Amino acid sequence: MQISESQPFVPVILGGDIGAYSLAREFHELYDVRSVVVPSVMTGITEHSRILVPRPFAQQDDPVAFAAFVSELGREFGDVNGTTRPLLLLGAADQHIRFIATYANELSEWFAIPYVGNAELDRATEKDGFYQLCRDLGVSYPATVVHGCAGDAPDARALESELVAEGVPFPAIVKPSDGVAWGALEFAGKRKVHTVASIQELTELINKASGAGYGGTLVIQDLIPGGDSGMHLATFFSDQDKRVRFVSCGRVIVEEHAPGAVGNSAAIVAQANDVAVMEGTRLLEELGWTGFSMFDMKLDPRDGAYKFFELNPRLGRNHFYITAAGHNVARFYVEEYLRGGLAGGTDLVVATERHLYNILPLRLLRRYVPAEMKSGVEELIASKRYSHPLYYSKETNPRRWLYILISTVNHYRKFKRHHPAS
């Protein structure tokens, strides 16, 4: 499947996960265009598709080679018989956004780039900096200690005293400030997010990470009680004048718990959240943000406050919940970055339509819906207001549908091995 010379613009999407496919679907649904998708390896998500052209590139951890490859894609798809066709460069994961920011000058010869630069990324996404911003603005976040992994082995007694002073008890959550560097590490037992039960477990984790070459900081946090359904998210779009123009919020029903996928939402109910809109807008205006961003937060049952965890500098992996509820995200990219500015004045639009985003078999999903959400979720299912991003009727290859069926059913196996706590 190729891209016609008559296609008016081409999205080039770095990545190959369900979020990358969702973007390709969204552009196809709204504008009837095909996207170029650049995974590191081909999987069933990007194979046998009618809506995208896959261009795999394995050396995505080599930024110089990757920049040369992406620039060549720009020449291939942007130069049409001597005229320049508009291209959008999009990323599905944090490392893609960092790569785009670093090589923006080179890549902007061919691509419109809807992301902030490295300085804004550093301030917003390095978790110790983000929590300082929350402190400055009075936005709630979990009690936190930031520990540097460079240098000597940690002094267990001093570190424990610091945790006590900051109100971080055990068990505690531990996660890296630099998710990109953490993702490149290899050591026994590594997870995206760790839970440690004692100072001994914590110091052992720090030693493993530093021994594997991690020189950044680790964020050690109060473990907020409650299950997956305490998690909430809010996705924002800010225009190029740094005004927040759109917000869509959601409540998680259940997350994945396999070691490499901890924190990935498997089911979300799109619904309004006034607190998230207000607090997220304050943070983004202070940052002077442009483009999409997404906040993770958890409702703390101890004090009723939403505790903000982080800012993601892009659409989330499961952002299709926004489009499924009536606001196709592709429109924001095209209108703001290719057609002169987002239509509709400068007012803030807040999504209010309820919709169920779900990648699980419904029978499996129903096991994990908390009691207070059951009636609402069943109402959405009964009224057919639920969506799976891979279930796209324009895809007609039977091999693709076989992959989708197998991957959906495989969630039974994954949840049996790594099931959410009740």
Summarize the structure.
This protein is of the alpha/beta class. About 35% of the residues lie in helices and about 20% in strands. The chain has helices at about 20-30, 65-80, 95-100, 105, 120-125, 125-135, 155-165, 180-185, 200-210, 275-285, 320-325, 330-335, 360-370, 375-380, 400-415; strands spanning about 10-15, 35-40, 50-55, 80, 85, 85-90, 110, 145-150, 170-175, 195, 215-220, 230-240, 245-255, 265-270, 290-300, 305-310, 350, 355-360, 385.
Task: Describe the fold and architecture.
- It is a single chain.
- The strands form four sheets. Strands 12, 13, 14, 15, 16, 17, 18 and 19 form an eight-stranded mixed β-sheet that branches. A five-stranded parallel β-sheet has the order 3-2-1-6-7, sandwiched between helices.
- The termini are far apart.
- It is an alpha/beta fold.
- It contains 15 helices and 19 strands.
- It has three domains: 10-113, 3-Layer(aba) Sandwich (Rossmann fold); 143-222, Dna Ligase, domain 1, CATH 3.30.1490; 228-417, D-amino Acid Aminotransferase, Chain A, domain 1, CATH 3.30.470.20.
- 41% of the residues are buried.
Entry keywords:
422 residues; Rossmann fold; Dna Ligase, domain 1; D-amino Acid Aminotransferase, Chain A, domain 1; Carboxylate--amine ligase
